[in-house]
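Worked example

This section walks through a single chain of length 311. The input is the sequence exactly as stored; nothing has been trimmed or padded.
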Amino acid sequence: MEKYDLIIIGAGPSGLTAALYAGRAGYTMLMIEKTGPGGQIMLTDKIDNYPGFEDGISGFELQDKLYKQAVKFGLHMISDSVISIKKENDLFIVSTLTGKTFTSISVILSTGATHRLLGVQGESRLSGKGVSYCGTCDGPFYRNREVVIIGGGDTALTEALFIAKFAKKITIIHRKETFRAVSSLIKQTTSLPNISFIMNSVVTEITGENEVNGVVVNNIKTGAIETLKTDGVFVFVGLDPNTDFVDSSLLDKAKYIITNDKMETSVKGLFAAGDVRSETFRQIVCACSDGAKSAQYAGEFIDEQKGNSYQ
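Given that input, the structure is written out below as tokens.
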């Protein structure tokens, strides 16, 4: 088994930032990522709220810069899926889908969360071309334009309130007759003149060639079908944290990882960073902050363990 000071699982902004900080501090590390670097930022055509880029930056460009910077300081990444983590004799044992096993003194979980997709025609093809899963990221691009928001929970209405600062018109489409969101959000949303609602309805197709130009809406009570013109579609039907391999005792009810303010779980030496954490503000800059802090405290733990081994 290959042994490292630190294993980082997941190559989104939090994981890459953790690798940068750990590498600069001189720790040996391995990153395990099942697809490729970038995480959710790869879904965003242009990022306008990451500090330092006054003209914005594409999701691909940002991940490329983050990845290359981490590699410069010693990051070694393999493509594989982690299926289990266990701790034995003060070492973590990480097993992967391909049958490989690695050990480390500390582990950072930065596996992120996955947006639930509608699964309708046009969604994947137009992702980043008018289909978005982040209002805070992409709302300002729709100044004086018309957008559709799909969803009826707290996230959908919270994002609608933000996007309403920019959009000329918002149509919220929800499959039920009432919203799942808290009453205060419903009151705020329904009071805004530029927000309208289509209830008891689902979107069955997102239309457009090179960019979104409309949605097909089906009323599930009457069966009526209409095409609604729009410049953009925001999908807020939930997030699923990527924690299938994490022990349930470390998770909250929604299966996000519970940490303290040092990014540490209840297992000493096991940290989490970014969107996979419970109760976090899911923005790129916050994920990077989590990554930096997790690397700092993981480093302190590694130093302590190495010091103990020489006593």
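What to look for: The chain has two domains: 2-114+239-309, 117-235.
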